[in-house]
């Protein structure tokens, strides 16, 4: 398991995820970044680390969350407007993982049904298929994935 670093009122605290302390029931990360293609992989890795540190060990759920992060961040990098992309991941151990990506655009994501030879256009179809729920609030596209 990866070492985990949590914040308390005195600053960052290192704690290996296998420590005997009580399990984390809620976790949240929020970052803003320039819309660069390399950020997709970075957000995917940050997501995996965050979920591992929080104790989410179901590889199927983690894989789905990472895929949806990739799709939403890729859309924001390609189609967003503005200087920064906002990313938020919320984990509630009793319920769900919520992914939010704010691309500062006024456009709405479109679920396409590309042909079998199309090289792109499947992102929002994957989100619609794999997420429990998804939508758009202002310029923020979000989706949820159940953890149980």
From TrEMBL:
Please name the CDD domains in this protein's record. Answer: HATPase_RsbW-like (cd16936)
Query: Is Transferase one of the keywords UniProt gives this record?
Result: yes
Q: Where is the Histidine kinase/HSP90-like ATPase domain?
A: 35-131
List UniProt keywords, sorted A-Z: ATP-binding, Kinase, Nucleotide-binding, Serine/threonine-protein kinase, Transferase
GO molecular function annotations of the record: ATP binding
Q: Does the keyword Nucleotidyltransferase apply?
A: no
Q: Where is the signal peptide?
A: none
| Annotated stretches, region: Disordered | 1-21
Give the top-rank taxon of the lineage listed in the UniProt record for this protein.
Answer: Bacteria
Which species is this record about? Streptomyces pyxinae
Q: Which InterPro entries match?
A: Anti-sigma-factor_SerPK (IPR050267), HATPase_C_sf (IPR036890), HATPase_dom (IPR003594)
Protein's name in the database: ATP-binding protein
| Compositional bias (Acidic residues) | 1-11
């Amino acid at each position: 398991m990866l070492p985990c670093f949590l914040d308390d009122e005195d600053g960052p605290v290192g704690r290996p995820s296998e420590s005997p302390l009580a399990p984390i029931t809620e976790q949240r990360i929020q970052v803003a970044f320039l819309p660069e293609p390399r950020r997709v992989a970075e957000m995917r890795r940050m997501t995996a680390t965050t979920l591992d540190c929080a104790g989410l060990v179901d590889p199927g759920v983690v894989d789905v969350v990472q895929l949806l992060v990739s799709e939403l961040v890729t859309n924001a990098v390609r189609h967003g407007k503005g200087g920064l992309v906002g990313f938020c991941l919320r984990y509630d151990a009793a319920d769900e993982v919520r992914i939010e990506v704010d691309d500062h655009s006024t456009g709405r994501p479109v679920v396409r049904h590309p042909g079998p030879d199309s090289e792109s256009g499947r992102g929002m179809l994957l989100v619609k298929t794999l997420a429990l729920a998804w939508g758009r609030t202002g310029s923020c596209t979000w989706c949820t994935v159940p953890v149980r």
